[in-house]
Amino acid sequence: MKIIGTKVKCPMCKNKRLMDMISAEKAELVIKCPICKNIIHLSFNKNKIKAKAV
């Protein structure tokens, strides 16, 4: 079985790897980017990611 990960990127800065997502049916997270210090709202729905700066 092959596991494919997806890189979650910051929409505001050059940080190309906020976190790695293996799979997510449905989830919401709020995290802080360690580079630009913006708060990022992440929405996962059926293995698709949407990132918005708050």
Keywords:
globular; three-stranded antiparallel sheet; two-stranded antiparallel sheet; 54 residues; single chain; mainly beta; 48% strand
> How does the overall form come out from the CA principal axes?
globular
| Structural class by secondary-structure content | mainly beta
Could you give the count of β-strands? 5
Please report which band the strand proportion falls in: under 5%, 5-15%, 15-25%, 25-35%, 35-45% or over 45%: over 45%
User: If you compute it from the alpha carbons, what radius of gyration comes out, rounded to the nearest whole angstrom?
Assistant: 11 Å
List the uncertain runs: none
Largest sheet, described in full? 3 strands, antiparallel
Q: How many distinct domains?
A: 1
End-to-end gap: 37 Å
Number of helices: 0
- Summarize the helix and strand pattern as letters: EEEEE
The overall average pLDDT, rounded, is 86
**Spatial strand sequence of the major β-sheet:** 3-4-5
The helix content, as a percent range, equals: under 10%
